[in-house]
Structure formats: C-alpha cells, structure tokens
Amino acid sequence: MNVKFLLGSVCILCMVCLMSGISIAENLDVPTQHGTVSWYELLTTDVDAAIKFYTQILGWTTEESPLPDGSKYVLIKLNGKPVGGIMKTPPHAQGVPPYWGLYVTVNDVDAAAQQVQELGGKILVPPTDLPENTRFCVIQDPQGAVIEIITYRQKEQ
Question: How far apart are CA 119 and CA 68, in angstroms?
Fold first, then answer.
C-alpha cells in the first residue's frame, strides 16, 4: 500500500475539521476509549455513486465540505453526528482500488507504535502530530493488514 497515499488520506480528516471549525475529539464526538474504532473513511473513484449506495442501504446522511484543491470531502452522519467520510481517490493514488480505512483510538500512539514493532508489525507512517491535539500512526500487522491508530487529546484550558 502506498504510504504517501495513506498519509494524505489521514490528513484529509484533520484538514476538513480545521476548515469547518470542527474540533475532532470534542465536536465530532468520536469515541476516545482505547481500542474503539473512531472514524471510517472511504476513498473511491465515484463519490456520488458511493453516497447514493450507502445512504440507501445504511440510512446515513451526508454533508459536503469543500477542500482547498476544489475537491470535496463528504462527512457521513448517523443520527446527525459525523462518523466518517467519503472522498475521491487523490491523484497521487490513482490505480489504488476503492477501500474503507478505519481509525482505532489508542491511549498513547507512541507506546502503541513501539508495541507494534515488538510484536513483529511495521510502522508505515510514524507517530505524527496533527492539528487539534491529535496524533496518529499507520501500522501494518505481521500478516500485512494496514490500519491507522489515533489518539485524540483534549485541548488544554
């Protein structure tokens, strides 16, 4: 899997939140319990077809957020609360088939990354600070599956 592509997709979540004034952990009401899936994200070749498909099957509603490059990020909402997003596969990742990515909350990204290596996994994107007091890492398990881990920190008062 293309690491540059993974880094770009994770940063989209934070960019959307910054542009729309949404605080990731506080206003999106993401689960912050260790081990909980906190965000889902679909990268696809046809955003409109994906929206039509998933809203009809799952009852989701959506809200578009424009991105600086002119593309759009679509927030997926359940009961009025954002739970994920849909976006068009970025140009640098053309040829990558559409896929769902997921972010799992951990208490400490750095400690989890160290444990990944100790258990035979790989770090594809090292622990990285993002806006809104958020830190993430992209890991690969020993069998080759890739997942993003993320820590949401509360803003200091």
Answer: 39
Q: Report d(CA 101, CA 42) in Å as an integer.
A: 6
CATH number, domain with residue 127? 3.10.180.10
Name the token pair of 21.
């004034």
Collapsed DSSP state (helix, strand, coil) of residue 55: helix
Q: Which amino acid is at 146?
A: V
pLDDT in tens, 15-61: 444 444 444 444 556 778 899 999 999 999 999 999 999 999 999 99
pLDDT at 155: 54
d(CA 89, CA 117) in angstroms, rounded, equals: 29
Residue 29 confidence (pLDDT): 66
| The dihedral formed by the CA atoms of 75, 129, 100 and 27, expressed in degrees to the nearest 10 | -30
142 in Cβ contact with 123 (< 8 Å)? no
Mean pLDDT, residues 63-89? 90
The total number of structural domains that make up the chain: 1
Tokens linked to 96: 């990558």
Cβ proximity of 136 and 147 under 8 Å? no
- List the structure tokens of 50: 């994906």
Residue ranges making up the domain that contains 117: 3-15+36-152
